[in-house]
Each structure stands twice: as structure tokens, then as C-alpha cells.
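As described in the Methods, two query proteins were run sequentially through the folding procedure within a single session, without resetting any intermediate state between them. The first query and its resulting C-alpha cells are shown here.
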Amino acid sequence: MNIKSFNIKISQAKLDDLHERIKKTIWPAVISGQNYGGPELANIQDLAQKVLRFDWRKKEAELNKLPHFTTEINGQTIHFIHVKSKEANAMPLMLIHGWPGSIVEFLNHIEPLTDPVNHGGKAEDAFDLVIPSLPGFAFSGPTKEAGWNNVRIGKAFIELMGRLGYDKFAVQGGDAGAIIGPEMGRLAPEKFIGLHLNAATIGFMPMGPVDEADIAKFTPAEKKRLEVMQEFLQVKFGFNLLQSNQPQLVAYALADSPVGLMAWMTQLMDPEEVGERFLTNFMIYWLTGTVASSIRLYYENAHDPSAWAPKANSGVPTAVAVFQDGDIAIRKYGEDGNNIVRWTEYPHGGHYAALTVPEVWLNDVREFFRELR
């Protein structure tokens, strides 16, 4: 039950090693004008130069202004940020990231969510925030044993909220967080105020061929999302297949080459869209040495039979925000396993909406949970 304060302190040796590895990168041969998949060489070279200029010590000091903690649950270190609002009736809210995201996704939202009066909101919009690093990710450190799948993570996060004294709480999650959050709701529906999801995939998308009769009932936006999903599965799904079946194979490359890791991460997180946060996110993965353990999450879930079984509906009030630039959720597929009471579609935003359209994401979160207070 012990909760300890945590301070980020990366050794200078790790920073020096990172710079040396980047400087000694062996760049791949390319054919001008040909696209063989993956990011452009010039773009990754530019990113590498930005990492060399990145002031980690400044960022580290900025991060350490936040209240970080660690605790051990089920044999695994769990790192989290815990920021309490000054408002007496603040709602406890856990924010859950995915891969290759991290706590970085939510940094700019901490003050608006905990101190809404000074950020365009009302006192009754206040939250107490708990922002964990997934087991095996970032400051939670590598996982120490097999089996850390979405359900096990969900149980650990429910335990974490209990240790912090929250008998009832809300959850917001994107990407993996949009899978773990509903799992938590099914595990302990009596503890839930509500769920807010974005970047929803598993449980909100077809898992096989789609009947033409169903497609005919889709809205134009849903038809577009289906096309995006099918193209992604054909062209960009290779990372998922490797991480789900041979994570150790790809880990040898990603854990050894910082340029390889940043190129791999651009498959899902576009540096142009998320800006400087991409660099911070990359640095955290690299400096904590957690890329191998983070991608094992895909393997653990792919080899968990229960992960693919039909899901019971927890009854937890659930909101889904769909951002057309990068999301693929289709309401029809989410209704069986989720009590969807709010479904909002936005024309832009993408997979990392908290970073790319922060005000839209923030307002959607506020509006939904305002109805549940």
C-alpha cells in the first residue's frame, strides 16, 4: 500500500549515449522519388537533429514541478501523476494513454482540468487527476513478468484509485486507454461515474468483413472511416503484427537505435501534428529503456483469448468523441459492449486529439462529465 514520491532524474551518461548513437547512425540507402513505406529520410534526419538540440534538463525540471508518485501493485511499479484540485467537489478522473503515447499527452490539460476557473471553465468543472504510466511504459519501468494485458492493467488501476481514497471515479482514455477504460468498467461498474473515450478501436470497429447491407446503413462519415481502417490494415498494420507476435524481434532494433525508435513511432504519432510533444514523448521512452516492455502489451493482448470474446455491457455511462482525421470508431460496433450515452463527431483532430485539438478535446470532456456530477 506504500505510495512514494518520485523525482525524474536521468543520468548524464544516458543523455551522452543517446547523442553518440544518433551521431553514429548508419542511414539507409534510398532511391530518390520512390516511396517504399515509412517516413522520408530527410524528415527523420531533421528529427534526429532536433533531438540533439533538445534540452532534456529543462524538460526534466518542468516535469518535476508536477507531483509524481510510484507504488507497487501486483509486483509491478506503477508511476503516476496525482494533482488535486482546490475545488472541494472535484471529480476524481483518471487519464489513460496508449502506445506510443505517454503522460505527455495530458500535460497541457492538467491545469485546465484541475483549476477550471482560471482556464475558461467553472468551479463545478473541476477534477482531481490521476495520470498513470501504463505498466511497462516510461517511468513505471519495464514489466517484470508476463501477463500484463489490458484486464490486468485495469485491475491494477482500479486498485490504484482505491489506494488514493477514491471509492468512485471517472476515466478518460484514448488508444489503449479506450480499451482499458471499458475493461475497468466491466470489472468494477459500481466504482464508475462515467467513461470518456477517444481514438477508440477494439470494440468499436468491425473485426472481419463487413456486410454490404450494413455498409448501406452507414453515414458518409462512417463509410469514410471504414475506408481509412481498411487502408490502414493493408498498408500500415505491419507494426501491429510484429508487436503482437514477435515483439522481441523488433525490440532488438528499437532498443538499440534511437533513430530506429523515432522512425517506428512516427507510424502512429505524426511529429508535424503533435509538435514538440513528440520529442518529449520519444525521449521518455528512450531514456527509461521501456520500448521493449511497452510493445509487449500488444503480444499479451493478442494472446489473451478473453480479449477477443464478446464483451458484456457494464452499464457505465460512456461518451465517445470521434475525430475524423484519424479515428475509425463506428457506433454500431460499440453499442453492444458499451452504454453509449453521448457520441460526438468532429471534422478534424486525429488520433491524438488531446494534443492536436486540445480545446475541442477539453470541452468534450468537460461537457460530458458535467452531466454526471
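Immediately afterward, the second query was submitted; its sequence and C-alpha cells are:
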Amino acid sequence: MSKKKRALESLDTDSRQKAFPSQSKDGKESSPNIRYENLPLVVLAGRPNVGKSTLFNRLLGKRKAITDAQPGVTRDPIEEECELLRTREKICLVDTGGFKLEREGLDELVVARALAYIQRADLVIFIIDVTQITPEDEEFAVFLRPYAKKLLLVVNKADSPERDALVWEHARWGFGPMLFISAEHNRNIDKLEEAITARLDFSSVRQAEVEAADIRIAIMGKPNTGKSTLLNALVGYERSIVSPEPGTTRDIVKDHFQYEGRGFEVLDTAGIRRKKKVTDNIEYYSVTRSIRIVSHADVVVLLIDAEEGLSDQDKKIAAFAVEAGRPVVFALSKWDKMPNMKNAFEATRDRLRFFFGQMAYAPIVPISAKERKGLDKLMSVVISLYAKANKVIETSHLNQAVAEWVKETPPPASPSNRFKLRYAVQSSVNPQRFIFFVTRPEAVPESYKSFLKNKIRLDFGLDGVPIQLELRASRRNRQRS
């Protein structure tokens, strides 16, 4: 066997291990995707600034909820699968917005969302501050009395034994045994996990093998482009708070839904404004998490306000997705408000492709989430892009195609930028990444790289998907040097 053939087979094996992480090196299938069903629903509830989000992050073992001294940071309920480290039991943990007596702006919607989760909960953790009892605590305790059988009173910010005596001030509500903890300092969290486990029934929890993981969709865009409205339309109920006020969504709101027999996880992200307009710490954290979520998504749906048209910020958001190698769908939001003119969509589509330049390959879909129009088309495009982004190409087929491309369009032949393509391999899927081994990587012009990317899309059915291309010096060339 020639050295070149052995190298190709070795590279092909590596690429398949990256493309199919469920396969081991000997080709045998490892454990399939597992989904846990019927997890007990545990809801963290209380007034603002008692430490709900801090406890949420502590139980999860990672920073999922935004925490800040400013009251009322959490708005939409945040839902995460959580394994209790002490007992190894799994629960569905929910962080809710704070209960307020005096409400303004979005407060009514925030409280309504929290109360809806309390009604559905298997266990409500009523969190209060050891240092003070407020009228909001008193009023909330009255509201929660009908749920006493599924309520656990937790007194937070008991940072040291010196504060333990203050806990008994809260016993007058008669909610049964209390726990005093410090979410920030990890005090008595093990006892809390044991108490949670003791109050729940895990007999219905089961592991369900699924043929394929849920397709994860990240909804992104500027503020007020309809991201939360789209999430609600996809999941079929009012999951995200919708308001004309910019910046309503702060944390990453996620939910699941089924479409044509396939599971989807949809992520509603905070609206991303220009950097110089972000002056608030909370918005900074929200935007940062929105950008990070791109690398965890399978497909990005970028909402562009059809009335306002394309902005520089839309281009920057799209660039985040392209850099991560994720497929992007341009969704023209609020299309129902556009004038009913002949060829209106075609004109808008052509303008978008002109201004986006190198992202002209990305599909464009007009939608109205409010009117539930265009959603079937959007989902069809998402499913198609997901399949293309995860397509694996045999190395032998790839190199046969490369030989044809070189024959049809040879590389530049001038002495200063002469190079030869030796061979190529697909190194990963989603992102679709290819490695080309050449004699002189530094001599390959950007125009020829673009040519190779376009040929990969065209010949292997990867239209609509970003292609990442890496150039490496061929071994023969390295040995000579």
C-alpha cells in the first residue's frame, strides 16, 4: 500500500470519528442518545433578590441564569435538566422571576409566568432571605398556602452558623421543616438535595432511546424582531414573554417541540445591539450568552425585520454563525406587514444577497410568527440544512472530485504563486470542515479557496451550508523543506 493511500485512509478514519462521535475506533456503536422523560418539576420561587438564580446555578453546577444585585433580573422562567450531585437523581429545575406586590411594565407578565409554573410543579422551593421578612414574603406565603403539601421552605443567605438563629423567625408560616442554606457559599446544599429527593416520586422517570438527537435551533436577531413570538409559535404556547419593550428576553429561553415526528430544541436569545449601545451589565451578559449559544446550535435562524430591512448589526450576527460554521436561515420577520406587491419577496431576497456578499448561499424565508405564516417553509429549510450540515463525504469520492476540479480549473501557474493540490479530506461535520494538503499553502489565493468551497457545495449537495477550509503543507513538501 502506498504512503499516500495509507495517509488518506488514516485521515478518513479520523474524519469519521469526528463526524460520528457515537462510533468508537473499532467501528462499534457506543451508547445511543438518551432522553430522560417524566422528570419531576422543581420550581424555585420567591420575591426578587432572595437568591433564586444563585441557587439555580449552584444546583446545576454551572452558570446558566444571570445573577446581579439589581432586582428583577430573571423574567422568563429558565428550565434545565439537573442531576442532584448528592443523590444522583435527575429533575427538571426551573428558575422563575421574582414575586412583586407593586408591579409595573413587564412585572405582571413575569409574575404570571412564575405562578403558572408553581401550579404545575411537583415541588415548590419557597426561598426567603434570612436577614429580613418583607410584605412581599408575607403576601407570597399566603398565596402559596394551598400548595403547602408540595412546598419546601428554604431560608437562603445563612452564610455562617452565626446567622442560624435568625432562621426561626420564619417558622411562623407553618410550612413544616425548614432548611437554612447559603447558595453563594455552598452551605447545606447537600442537605437541600437530600430533602428535594425525599419529597419527590421518581418512579415514572425513564430513559428513552432516541434514533437521533433533537435538532437545536437558535433564534437570533436585533431586539424587537419577533424572536420570542417565533419561539411561542413553534412550541404552541406562550413560553417567552412578548413585549414592545426592547431587551425583554435576558436569559436563554429554551423549549422542545415536535414537528413531523422529529424532536426540536428551540433557543430564544437576547436581542443583540451594537456594542456602544450596551451600557448595562445585565444586557452585556445577555448578549454574551446569545453569542456563545451559536456554537451549541445546529441551525441559526436570523430574524431580520422585513419593514426595517438589513442593518450592519444583522451582518455582525450572521458573522458569528459563519465563524462557528453553523448554517443560517435568513427569516424575514413580520412579512404580514409588508405591502402586497408583485415580486416583493424576490426584490427583498436579491437585495439581501447583494449586501451579504459571501453569504449569498444562505436560504431566505419570509415569515409572520404572529400570523403563523411561513413556519412550515421555515421548518422545511431547517431540516434540510441540518441534514446537509451533517453529511459525511467519502474521502475517495472527494479526491476524485478534486482531481476533476483541478483539471477543469487549474491553480495559478505563475512562478510566484505556483502550488499543487495533493489530496483532501473532510475533517468534521456541523461545521463542515475540509483539509486540503497542498505543496505551498501560503501561495493559495483567496479566490481559489472560494472556488473550492463553491465546488464542494455544488458537487456534494451542500448548498446553503458554510464551508470551512484549512490548508496544510503536504508531507512530501514538509520532508523536502
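The mean pLDDT is 78. We note this only descriptively and draw no conclusion about the first query from it.
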